[in-house]
Design a protein that fits this description.
Rossmann fold; alpha/beta; 420 residues; 2 domains
């Protein structure tokens, strides 16, 4: 494979976790001799921007198209580059209605612009494959249509489940039937399917058939070696414990806060600790933290660019990881691998029988319990503090989860599939 056309709605200068996977893939594909053209969206209202990540991008060409999706339309009538109120002050019930009333997803208004841009590119370039990273799932529909038109192999990358996603509810039975129809059509046509976890692979095979098994490959999100260079690590007077990321769906810091309050009521909470949360947080989360009995030891920071986030996690003593128990066994957040690369202690509030816990245990991170188990969180928190007091050896990390190695695995699998 020498030329790839990638459909990615979320791409720099947009920020956030959904942007990391495609931009890092393009970066390391380029180092493997594969040039990539990217079709993405332009000028939307979004919760964060990452200009440093944009400078890191090495796509040969980026085509930024218009769109008729809600965030694009809002941008046209908005005077600000980002509008946090849209995300964090609009009641969830109204946002849910807006997301769910569209067939496929709320980005379906982007589809005709992607098709037009793809057809125009095809006149000047011969691609070895067309690829979509999902969500949004409109990306998959667009890539499917373009691949059929170009008579080119289709690669589908799942960052999140589609019709099997526990956080997606459908406006009607017809909406669900329509989505399942399209997901099945896309999967049957795709020559290669990549997913972020083993559980996701098994879910797709169970739901859509055994014929998918030979075409699906797990490509972990991983960590980028280049992100972990050129910064100074400071020594802290207090133990600083951080969480870098957002809360949504069933993922919440509520039970962790409750555990800290429990320890305080027992007079077991050390006073030499600072807890930092860095990300975009809804009003409900902010209010719960600020109104808690331990608010004086918690600091809330706004979301920062990815490179700064790496610098921040390297300048702490331990890290917090949250994955809800409800349908969370197969959830692997991208930050898990960067946490492991940091060599820090991890207090993991994740399903103990899930895939994240399995990887943590393989890397000798054993402070694991359900996110909703207040008593066990409190117990593990005290064990974490004792570990930090006595720790002398820095943890090792495995190169298996580097972005470079994961991209090489991706490329080898794609080329094997193209030969077939």
């Amino acid at each position: 494979m020498k030329k790839l056309l990638l459909i990615a709605y979320f791409y720099p200068p947009l920020g956030g976790p959904g942007v990391q996977r495609p931009v890092k893939l393009v970066k390391y594909l380029e180092r493997c001799g594969v040039s990539t053209n990217v079709i993405t969206v332009k000028d939307i209202v979004f919760h964060s921007m990452d200009q440093k990540l944009l400078k890191e991008d090495v796509a040969r060409r980026i085509i930024r198209t218009s769109s008729f999706d809600p965030m694009s339309i809002l941008k046209k009538i908005s005077k600000t580059k980002t509008n946090r109120a849209v995300y964090f002050k609009t009641p969830e019930k109204y946002k849910k209605i807006i997301r769910n009333i569209f067939f496929i997803d709320e980005k379906i208004g982007w589809l005709p612009f992607v098709i037009k841009a793809g057809k125009k590119l095809n006149k000047k370039n011969e691609y070895d494959a067309v690829m979509a990273t999902m969500g949004p799932y409109t990306s998959g529909v667009a890539a499917y249509k373009l691949a059929k038109k170009m008579k080119t192999p289709l690669i589908i990358d799942y960052r999140d489940h589609w019709t099997l996603n526990p956080y997606i509810t459908f406006f009607s039975k017809l909406h669900k039937i329509h989505a399942v129809h399209w997901e099945n059509k896309i999967l049957n046509f795709a020559s290669t399917i990549t997913v972020v976890s083993k559980t996701m692979k098994d879910d797709l095979i169970d739901e859509f058939g055994e014929t998918l098994r030979s075409r699906i490959k797990v490509i972990y999100n991983g960590w980028d070696t280049d992100d972990f260079t050129n910064f100074v690590i400071r020594k802290n007077e207090k133990f600083i414990i951080k969480y870098i990321g957002n809360f949504y769906g069933y993922r919440t810091p509520k039970f962790f806060i409750d555990a800290l309050e429990l320890l305080k009521s027992r007079d077991q909470l050390p006073n030499n600790i600072i807890i930092e949360f860095t990300g975009n947080y809804y009003a409900e989360t902010v209010n719960y933290i600020n109104n808690s009995e331990v608010s004086d030891m918690i600091k809330l920071n706004p979301q920062i660019e990815h490179k700064e986030a790496i610098k921040s996690l390297m300048n702490c003593d331990a890290l917090l990881l949250f994955i809800a128990s409800h349908k969370g066994k197969g959830v692997l957040t991208g930050k898990l691998f960067e946490y492991l690369r940091s060599g820090k202690e991890i207090l993991a509030m994740v399903p103990p029988d899930g895939e994240a816990a399995e990887i943590l245990i393989q890397n000798k991170q054993n402070l694991i319990c359900n996110m909703e188990d207040v008593e066990m969180i409190a117990k593990n928190f005290l064990m974490l503090i004792e570990t930090l007091k006595n720790k002398k050896i820095k943890r090792e990390y495995s190169n298996k989860f580097s972005r470079e190695n994961q991209t090489i695995e991706f490329l080898n699998f794609v080329e094997e599939r193209l030969e077939n």
